[in-house]
Amino acid sequence: MKKRLFLQSVSVQKRRRYLTGATFVLPTLLILVLMMFTPLVRTFVYSVSKIKFPALETTFIGLDNFERMFSRPEIGQVLKNTVVWIFYSVIIRFSLGFGSALLLQGSSRRLKVCRVLALLPWTIPSIVSANTWRWMFQSELGFVNTLLTKLGLSAWTQNWLGDPATAMGAVLFAYGWSGFPFVMMMLLAGIQGIPDELYESGKIDGANAWQLFLHITIPELKSVIFAVLLLEITSGLNSFDLLYTMTGGGPGGSTEILGLLIHRVGFTNFDFGGASALSVFIILVAAVLFLLSGPAKKVRGKARGGEV
């Protein structure tokens, strides 16, 4: 009887602690939910509405905003730029990040210092990074052209950000430099989590470094690689600040992607309905990517289970 009363008392105390904690957390949780979902709901509402200024009164018009936005003459070029931007940015950032993770794995003090230095580009605010690279790519006094001239390669100097042929490449280089440390950090954590016994067993079986990488490192990192690629695609889809600062979508729309078009439509033309429609399109694409990630993981898990 005493034992039962004691257990009931402990249960009541736990319940009171839980309710006390939930009471303190609930206001913050409500604020976060409102901050997340209120703009999201408004975006969906605006995307199917005609908005009347200045009171922002809405009138339902169905999918007219979507039809109007995807009938714009520049939308084809913008979508092409967006695909090119995502494709090459993912390749650049993933390649640099994976290479850095492989080079900087280990526990020596020198490697730890190098890892800290490699993280520096990621710690710099994007607006500072964008302005720095814009100065470096400046055609007359920029660091890149000055360096090429001093090396006797003046024929290689370009108006990097003012020429449609080189603007996208220059911005992609800056974007890759600023973001690869995140990929490096994720993959490095995955590599360090691989048991040493697997590599030792492989070496005993006569596997060389390339075979160890191909048959142990890559399979063990599959889930991390998939997550990183998904995050990088989503990040590229939502890119704005670096492109806006360095080129503003120019020259001649050669670097304008969906994020920049949304800004131009919404805050230059004050067409909130059209901007919201394009934003909903990006949200749906990102949602599809995340939904597809679930079945893909299950398929890989079954395949791996079959191999074992």
Give the structure's gist in a few sentences:
By secondary structure, the protein is mainly alpha-helical. The protein contains 14 helices and two strands.
Describe this structure in words.
Residues 302-308 have low confidence and may be disordered. The chain is mainly α and 308 residues long. A hairpin with a 4-residue loop joins strand 1 (49-52) and strand 2. It is built from 14 helices and two strands, in the order H-E-E-H-H-H-H-H-H-H-H-H-H-H-H-H. Helix 8 runs antiparallel to helix 11 (222-237). The protein starts with a helix and ends with a helix. 75% of the residues lie in helices and 3% in strands. A two-stranded antiparallel sheet has the order 1-2.
Radius of gyration from CA coordinates: 26 Å
Structural class: mainly alpha
Which residue ranges are poorly predicted, with pLDDT under 50 across at least 5 consecutive positions?
Answer: 302-308
Cα distance spanning the termini: 53 Å
SSE blueprint and pairings:
Blueprint: H1 2-47, E1 49-52, E2 57-60, H2 64-69, H3 75-103, H4 109-118, H5 120-123, H6 126-136, H7 143-150, H8 164-192, H9 196-204, H10 209-220, H11 222-237, H12 241-246, H13 258-267, H14 272-307
Helix pairs in contact: 1-14, 3-8, 3-11, 6-8, 8-11, 11-14, 13-14
